[in-house]
From TrEMBL:
Catalytic activity: L-aspartate + ATP = 4-phospho-L-aspartate + ADP
Keyword DNA-binding: no
GO cellular component: cytosol
UniProt xrefs under Gene3D superfamilies: Acetylglutamate kinase-like, VC0802-like
Protein name: aspartate kinase
Location of region: Disordered: 487-511
One GO term of the biological process aspect: lysine biosynthetic process via diaminopimelate
Organism listed in the record: Albimonas donghaensis
Pfam family, one: AA_kinase
Residue ranges of domain Aspartate/glutamate/uridylate kinase in the record: 22-316
Assigned keywords, A-Z: ATP-binding, Kinase, Nucleotide-binding, Transferase
Length: 511
């Protein structure tokens, strides 16, 4: 049975019947352990037919995109960042060798047969050397001055990103075929393809002759397209490919496989034994998590799935029999804190005595932040101060800061490192989350620099010193999840009265 009809560009997506298949994404951390996935997620005890009607969208092996572009957390330069600052220097070229070695290490860990390893080595060589020639040519061309490197940097970023996912998808398809699965490498990275399709066309072309009932597509999480996946979505783009593919093919369900169950806090911070698995949550909570960089799911991906009416499941890749967390658009749910998470931020505070009663300051600040592509996590204001909590490098924030200083000459602008820690849940009304959080942080001797509760009863945010982020997460998790659970079950509705001291007793286990 072919599914070509289901992804034809002319059909209105939402009118088509849902397919039989699922679209499933595997993140980089889990991909690095894909040898362990063979006996479970990929094959396990599945008989012939049960192997199929699944589409896997894969990320690059852990750390590879960081080496290709720049480290997501520390900002340490990779090939892209070195090339961008290169002039005539070839430091980026050595960085490309580092990528090739890291790729080789990754596939040597998962492949066993020497023929497969050889094929993977050849693949890496062909792609890496192709990219190297391209960069050398571009550098030479731009040395004439008529050609501006800046104009091509986004294309370079796209080209480099695609290398990571092409490699991991190629290796995974090879691995599965070796184990008797009819897997097909679906390369959406546009390698040596001169046409410029848009994302939907790219997906349609990749799937036009695939029979989902008897083939297992292993799809690159990077998809080259006219819009530019990196330009629009930047890091975390494989979830965008994943969600668009799920919507385009009318998947029955979209599944994200992660290294752990989606839990009440990062198990690496709070401890695997202390965290609770989330059974069910909604897109509102998922949005808050993405905003804090938790990437339960990329915000654009969540939107695509929500609009297409496709249920999203987040599972632990290494426990395939566990149903994981279902993220449902409609679910209102019980009153409880479901998760505690945090993010290092810079607080950009603009204080201006003349601001009182005058409009326009906010707009000027926003303009500067937008111009320098500074991601805003949260903001607050009072009579004469507007503070944005942002997730960006100090370099970018400094640039925005000087633009703000220029457009608001008498303002005092200051940037400080902090951590934003947040307690998140579907319906926090009446739970005294703010009060309990302050008490817990005081007991743990974590200073609170600011507190925000916008009244929607979905989250409470606390700003703490950057170096106390993990202490704050542990203290809040202990108070709002572990202790609250011990105090009694949650009520579904109605919520207890605001400020009620009995309210915490309405929290319940999220396990
Ligand atoms: N609430 C949470 N539940 C589960 N994992 C979390 C949570 N918060 C942070 N993490 C961390 O996220 C890390 C990356 O997870 P995962 O999504 O599997 O990686 P990738 O981005 O490579 O797909 C995990 O190793 C875990 O430490
Ligand atoms: N590898 C890409 C795309 C991605 O989404 O990765 P992951 O699923 O590992 O977060 C990145 O780091 O941006």
């Amino acid at each position: 049975m072919t599914r070509h009809d289901q992804i034809s560009p002319s059909a209105a997506q939402n009118d088509r019947p849902a397919g039989l298949h699922t679209v499933e994404k595997i993140g980089g951390t889990s991909m690095s352990r894909s040898d362990e996935l063979l006996g479970g997620l990929f094959i396990g005890d599945r008989e012939e037919e049960a192997l199929y009607n699944r589409v896997f969208v894969v990320s690059a092996y852990g750390g590879i995109t960081d080496l290709l572009l720049e480290a997501k957390k520390s900002g340490a330069p990779g090939v892209y960042a070195l090339f961008a600052n290169a002039d005539h220097d070839h430091g980026w070229s050595e960085a490309l060798n580092v990528v090739a070695r890291a790729m080789s290490e990754a596939h040597n860990k998962v492949l066993e047969e020497s023929a497969d390893i050889r094929a993977a080595e050849d693949f890496v060589r062909e792609r890496i050397e192709g990219a190297r020639s391209c960069l050398i040519d571009l550098q030479r061309l731009c040395s004439y001055g008529h050609f501006q490197l800046d104009e091509h940097m986004m294309t370079i970023r796209e080209l480099l990103s695609g290398l990571g996912e092409a490699h991991s998808a190629f290796v995974t398809a090879t691995l599965l075929r070796r184990h008797g699965v009819n897997a097909r490498f679906v390369d959406l990275t546009g390698w040596r393809d001169e046409s410029q399709p848009d994302l939907d066309e790219r997906l349609d072309r990749g799937f036009e002759d695939i029979d989902l009932a008897r083939e297992l597509p292993i799809v690159t999480g990077y998809a080259q397209c006219r819009e530019g996946l990196m330009r629009e979505f930047d890091r975390g783009y494989s979830e965008v490919t994943f969600s668009r593919l799920a919507a385009r093919t009318r998947a029955r369900e979209a599944i994200v496989h992660k290294e752990f169950h989606l839990s009440s806090a990062d198990p690496k911070v709070v401890g695997a034994e202390a965290v609770r698995k989330l059974g069910l949550t909604n897109y509102d909570v998922a949005d808050q998590l993405s905003n804090l960089g938790m990437e339960a799911i990329h915000p654009s991906a969540a939107k695509t799935l929500r609009q297409a009416g496709i249920p999203l499941r987040v599972t632990n890749a290494f426990e395939p029999s566990d149903p994981g967390t279902l993220i449902d658009a409609e679910y209102g749910g019980a009153t409880r804190v479901e998760m505690v998470t945090g993010l290092p931020v810079l607080s950009l505070e603009v204080f201006e005595q003349d601001m009182v009663g005058v409009k326009g300051y906010d707009a000027r600040i926003l303009e500067a932040l937008t111009r320098h592509k500074v991601r805003i996590v949260s903001k607050s204001s009072n009579a004469n101060t507007v503070t944005h909590y942002v997730d960006a490098s100090l370099k970018l924030v400094k640039r925005a800061q000087s633009d703000i200083a220029a457009s608001c000459p008498s303002a005092r602008v200051r940037a400080r490192k902090m951590a934003l820690v947040s307690a998140i849940g579907r319906n926090l009304e009446g739970l005294s989350v703010a009060r309990r959080s302050l008490q817990a942080l005081e007991a743990a001797k974590v200073p609170v620099l600011a507190l925000q509760d916008n009244g929607r009863a979905v989250d409470v945010q606390l700003l703490v010193p950057a170096e106390r982020q993990d202490d704050a997460i542990r203290a809040l998790h202990h108070e709002l999840i572990e202790r609250a659970e011990a105090e009694g079950p949650a009520a579904d509705a109605p919520a207890p009265e605001a400020g009620s001291v009995a309210a915490p007793a309405t929290l319940r286990s999220v396990a």
